[in-house]
Amino acid sequence: NLTYSEDFHILAFTDTSANHRLLFLFFLLIYWAGILGNSLLITLVFKDSHLHNPMYFLLCNLSILDVCFPSATIPKLMEILLTKNTSMSLLQCYIQGVFYVFFGSTEAIVLSSMAYDRYVAICHPLQYYLIMNEKKYALIMGGPWILGLLNSVYLTFLCTRLLFCGEYDIHSFFCNIKSLSKISCGSAVFQNMIFAESLMFGLFQVLLILISYIKIVMVLLRMKYRLKILSSCSSHLITLIIFYG
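Now predict its structure.
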């Protein structure tokens, strides 16, 4: 009973009595607020030449991801809420999965890169532009996108080799690779790959961020205007809480 012919069903809201139209409006408002806010920040960074430095370009990079990341899942979720049609083809699942992993893993690396940038700016201010030279800047800006793309393509390729044993119900808000692995047959090797990917793009990135901020705090404890300097990290810290929370 191994087949690819069936559609999957996204069942996140089937067991709830909540008003689907109200949920649709809620997600619509949140989605467009994020789109408009991040688009405004991107425009400001590109238009103001005073903001053309690694810190703000990294922030701009993050804003682009904060537009793309929810766009991989929320539009389809809103369609399900509005039409109550929970079906999703295997191809649609793969497409959603590849973009979700791509933007998610890219954002994880960008967040750790921003932590490193803050560490250099606060702990080595006089050597900031020497350390953040053009080569390192290009690596920090482009590297996350390349690694994120390679990760998503590789995992999606492995996902296309999964076999499904008649179970097509996905109890999640969207179709992702982890959900597909749970309803597949004999996916132990694939689940091990997901675990390794979670370590590399999850735990390892968190450790890099923690190391950067531990060093920042150690330096700030010896400085007079520590609160003012720490405030420059506030947007990054808020994003970290939202992303990993």
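The CA atoms of residues 163 and 186 lie 8 Å apart.
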